[in-house]
Amino acid sequence: MTELDRIKQNVYKANTDLVKKKLVIQSFGNVSERFNHQCIIKPSGIELNSTQYTSMVTVNIDDGKYKSPLKPSSDTPTHIELYKKFSDIQSIVHTHSIFATSWAQSGLAIPCVGTTHADYWSSDIPITRVLTKNEVENEYEKNTGIVIVETLLKLKIDVLTCPGILVNNHGVFAWGKSSEEALNNAELIEYISEMAYKTMMINPNTKPINKHLQKKHFNRKNGDEKYYGQN
Ligand SMILES: [Zn+2]
Q1: pTM of the prediction?
Q2: Which of 17, 57, 107, 124 is deepest in the core (most CB within 10 A)?
Q3: pLDDT tops 90 at residue 231
Q4: Given 5, 62, 158, 228, which residue is catalytic?
Q5: C-alpha to C-alpha distances, 137 to 52, 58, 128, 142, nearest whole angstrom
Q6: Which position among 119, 140, 191, 197 bears the catalytic label?
Q7: CATH number of 3-221: 3.30.1330.10, 3.40.50.720, 1.20.1530.20, 3.40.225.10?
Q8: How many CB atoms are closer than 10 A to CB 209?
Q9: Per-residue pLDDT averaged across 186-214, rounded?
């Protein structure tokens, strides 16, 4: 099996796992993985059960061109903007998972109200600004990627310390060094979103955790100082 086939299999499996993990319903959502100067992504509006891994579409990151009988996901230009800007991102997952999307629809970043959040994000889970009328009417999906990049740069957030973001009014984009990791991060956003929502329901005056506790949890799982796990 070629490397390209192996990646197509990963992408196919990750897309089917999106449904199994209940992060999306029907044919919503998409997963892509970078392969050299290309990305491999789900075809647009396809029921995965009726197809196989060979149908995954290979798209050039530089110009968005593809050679395939099937069109790539309509969200491909969003993925491309992220791959272009951040070389550390190897895979991207997009979902409309319920709790995270509810935060996105509320227009609120997810505050760090517990250590589960701090284990994976060194900040709040950010939210983009709302797109302008012009940004929606022209190259909407590309502008969604641009606004994600803009948000991370403005907040001076490294993508390695922030494995996913909320897009205002819309949903979740998560990433990682593999499709498996990106999918786990999309699942974590949903889990953290649900806990944050329930925490705020129990006590609307809940404050974010202390910075020192947040830093401790993030650093013990990530970066040079990590000591959690077996390696
Ligand atoms: Zn979407």
Answers
A1: 0.94
A2: 57
A3: no
A4: 228
A5: 34, 26, 18, 11
A6: 119
A7: 3.40.225.10
A8: 17
A9: 96
